[in-house]
Design brief:
Helix content is about 40%, strand content about 15%. By secondary structure, it is of the alpha+beta class. The chain folds into two domains: about 60 residues, no CATH class; about 40 residues. The protein is flat and about 55 Å long. Keywords: Metal-binding, Zinc, Zinc-finger. GO terms for molecular function: zinc ion binding. This is GRF-type domain-containing protein. InterPro entries: Znf_GRF (IPR010666).
Length: about 100
């Protein structure tokens, strides 16, 4: 594990510390399952470059399995999108029928 000390202040307008950061888990194929700390304002406010890995790199077997997990995740996302579209169509048809 990395050392958990220090803070980062950049041009983003706020101060990032380990206490104010959020624990996230990488879903990218190369770093699948690795935990990292990132700015709590990520994708909300000004872009903050604060980022620290807290896990060791993913093992070889983990990298091999990551492709399978990513494929499954993509499949589930597409199924969810289709289900949401069907629900929207059904709701709209029911509203038009009344």
């Amino acid at each position: 594990m990395s050392s958990l000390s220090g803070n980062y202040s950049g041009s983003c307008g706020h101060l990032c510390t380990y206490e104010t950061c959020v624990l996230r888990i990488s879903l990218t194929v190369d770093n699948f399952g690795r935990r990292f700390l990132g700015c709590s304002q990520y994708k909300i406010g000004p872009k903050c470059p604060f980022f620290r890995w807290i896990d060791n790199p993913t093992c070889v077997r983990g990298n091999e399995a990551a492709h399978l997990v990513q494929q499954k995740l993509d499949l589930l996302r597409s199924k969810l999108q289709l289900a949401c579209e069907r629900e929207r169509e059904t709701t709209q048809a029911a509203a038009e029928a009344t």
